[in-house]
Amino acid sequence: MTSASLIVSIAMANAAQAADMDALVAAAKKEGTLTTIALPHSWCNYGEMIEGFKAKYGIEVNELNPDAGSGDEIEAIKANKGNTGPQAPDVIDVGLSFGPSSKAEGLVQPYKVATWDEIPDSAKDAEGYWYGDYYGVMSIMVNKDLITEMPKDWSDLLKPEFASAVALAGDPRASNQAISGVFAAGLSAAGGDAAKAGEAGLDFFKKLNEAGNFVPVIAKSASFAQGTTPVLMAWDYNALAWRDSLNGNPPAEIILPETGVVAGVYVQAISAYAPHPNAAKLWMEYLYSDEGQLTWLKGYCHPIRFNAMAKAGKIPQDLLDKLPPAEGYAKAVFPTLDEQKAYKEEITTKWDSVVGASVQ
């Protein structure tokens, strides 16, 4: 192929892609609404993401249960299979392990975004049923007004000075964030052995509960500020965003533990029963565009296209400067899908019998 014919071929492909996008926008606008679920505005900067999508395309966003966990999102699809009303989610944002399971259960449908090739193969389903959107690491957020000694590792949280202080940012029977917190503590206790980390994590929380240090409340920025949950386990992007929103009242410190540094990838998928399938596809295109990926980065979430965008010089230096030091993430462990499936099942099914603390 000559250079001239190559240019013509590329131009034709670009024109076809633009035409496809125009058709998708028109179809989505005709539907008029997108129904999301489990997207707190402070989580990964979703508030700005939702407003940006609405402003760009003029499509309303119906937001269901912002504080729901990954398991709740899956149940919402199951419960609304025949329902095209406002309680049926079009799209979900769930922990990595929920991607393959939702595909296996026939709960999601395939769709490949325009930037598909820049999503690492290890973070996507080859057929397009689900794909990674962003990742972060499990951290410890501490209210410095109430806690004077900063913990350096998970084991420190068992000390008497953390009485009635430690909480998870979710219910470990349903929330991927909370499950990952239990696994991280267990990975530390098990000396890095992922196969034993689920059991070790449950044992850690049993000890934490028996010591009177565990607070069975779903931790949020409000409970943190009020002093109900002065020490909480959350993804670093949530903790950093909460710290910023508090403006030093109270002062907060975000700590990456010395061991058991667990990285978590979340994935996007479209419900197989989406009442607004075209709006759902357009939402995916927006999330995985340069604009959407940078919106996540503003919320301290590493977008899945981060490496490709950085290589292309598409990430503003001011955003790079706001990220925590890279060396703090060097120890991060990315559990495999098989490991996640194993510890998720162990933690969710044995939490009540082993720990015996109902988190609400």
From TrEMBL:
Keyword annotations: Signal
A single GO BP: thiamine transport
Keyword set includes Signal: yes
This protein's name: 2-aminoethylphosphonate binding protein
PANTHER family according to UniProt: ABC TRANSPORTER SUBSTRATE-BINDING PROTEIN, THIAMINE-BINDING PERIPLASMIC PROTEIN-RELATED
Stretch forming the signal peptide: 1-18
Gene name in the database record: phnS1
GO molecular function terms noted in the UniProt entry: thiamine binding; thiamine pyrophosphate binding
Cellular component GO terms held in the UniProt record: outer membrane-bounded periplasmic space
